[in-house]
Amino acid sequence: MTETKTDKSLFYLYGLVPTEELKENPLTPFAGIDGRHHLYERQIGEVTAILCEIDEEEFSEEVIEDKVNHDMEWLQAKALHHHETLEKLHNNYTLIPLKFCTIYKNEQNLERTIETESLKFHQLFENIAQKEEWNLKIYCDDNKIKEEVAEHSADIKQHEKEIESLSPGRQFFERKKLKQKIEEAVVNVKRRKCDEIHEKLSELCAQSDVKKNWSQEMSGRKQDMNWNGIYLLNKNNRDSFLQQVKQLQEEYVDLGFTIEYTGPWPCYHFANL
Question: Any signal peptide, and if so, which residues (predicted)?
């Protein structure tokens, strides 16, 4: 479908794909983020940009800022479209996904960017070819871990025994010290167990990384998030990875650890520009 570009056009960039892959598997145009224009290809050497023309009146910087601040329904719908489009592209091509609302004023600016960074894009394509991302979050039940620490720590049991022989005044201060010791032990247990889980999963992956934990407000949970791991694995290694995750879920649940995973995703993290 041919669509005429006007002086008031902007260009919404979804992602970058190796040109060679599009020659073998041409892009099937489908509706873009505005619901009117369609996705199309812009070949720039060995890199092809997947774009959609948009109207400046609807997607100017000022309009987007206003929508983000005052129109949650618009924001959610457009963000969902962006994500679903990247998933479709990822299922068919080696995709470097771009962030939501990556917009160029003209195709020439995009072309200069890609030509300047062509080596970086080539290396990224090599790194993520036939790969996908998975995310794993770990939540901990501190009360359950506290019980385990108090039950199995010889040092804490000895401290409790010593407190019983002290005067009431000394007991008060020593119990405060004991409480702090238990809390420190809980932190150490959580860190050590999360490291163990991450190490076991990383052995199955091409790359792995750790992201910032979400707050309870972001996660919508009452428990704190204690780990937010991201894993890049070969698509043909997916079954082994998921089997290991499920084994870890069963192994750690009685210790107070809840392991949740999501995927497969486009390579948002490992192909982040």
Answer: none
* Angle made by CA atoms 145, 146, 152, in degrees to the nearest 5: 85
Select from 77, 73, 191, 66 the least CA-distant residue to 138: 191
d(CA 24, CA 147): 59
For a pLDDT cut of 90, what percent of the chain falls above it?
A: 69
Residue range 51-102, pLDDT digits in tens:
999 999 999 999 999 998 999 999 999 999 999 999 999 999 999 999 999 9
Cα angle 78, 80, 81 (rounded to 5 degrees) comes to 65
pLDDT of residue 165: 62
- Phi and psi at residue 61, to the nearest 5°: -55, -40
Could you tell me if 266 and 97 are in contact, meaning their C-beta atoms sit under 8 angstroms apart? yes
Distances, alpha carbon 61 to alpha carbons 6, 77, 97, 105, 208, in Å: 18, 18, 21, 11, 34
Beta 131-140 vs 47-55: how paired, if at all?
unpaired
Lowest mean pLDDT among 71-80, 125-134, 192-201, 210-219: 210-219
The answer to whether 15 and 99 have CB atoms below 8 angstroms apart is no
Residue 151 host element (H or E) = helix 142-152
In the chain, which residue ranges form alpha helices assigned H by DSSP? 19-24, 56-59, 61-70, 72-92, 107-116, 118-128, 142-152, 154-164, 168-202, 216-219, 238-252
> Is 115 exposed, middle or buried, given 0-12, 13-18 or 19+ CB atoms closer than 10 A?
exposed
Domain ranges of the chain: 9-129, 132-265
- Asked if the bond preceding 29 is cis, omega within 30° of 0, the reply is no
Q: How many residues does the chain have?
A: 273
User: Which pair of structure tokens corresponds to residue 45?
Assistant: 């050497």
